[in-house]
Design a protein that fits this description.
Elements lengths: L5 E4 L9 E8 L5 E8 L2 E9 L4 E7 L19 E8 L3 E6 L2 E7 L8 E8 L1 E7 L1
Antiparallel strand pairs: 1-9, 2-6, 2-10, 3-4, 3-9, 4-5, 6-7, 7-8
Length: 131
Amino acid sequence: MIPVPYRSVIKGGLKPGKSFTVRGEVNPNPHRIAFNLRHIFGIAFHYNVRFDENKVVCNTWDGKWGPEEFPAGMPFKEGQHFEIYIYCTDHSFNVCVNGQHVCSYKHRFSSLNEIDVFEVTGEVQINHVDA
């Protein structure tokens, strides 16, 4: 078991081609889970699973939240195992959950090399991280 909140440093900053894989299980009666790619000034990519609203929200924090994006569907289920894969391209973050592409989020923070922390928070148990 890997402790949550989980944080790992991205040595040398983020680059296109870098990916993150997390395998775990959603806790019973979850409220929210977040997968964040952070930089010193904020959060470049916030993938927020909101069980209390039955939706996923993607956003960027740079002193304030930007406009929310809502990928279709809710790929996470209470008490169930999951695998999330986040892949950085030149233009976006692509997210797959349990082998299914669930969203592409266009970069709003373009200094990828300044993105240096990967974080997981919320009501989740983590069994494996490849970051």
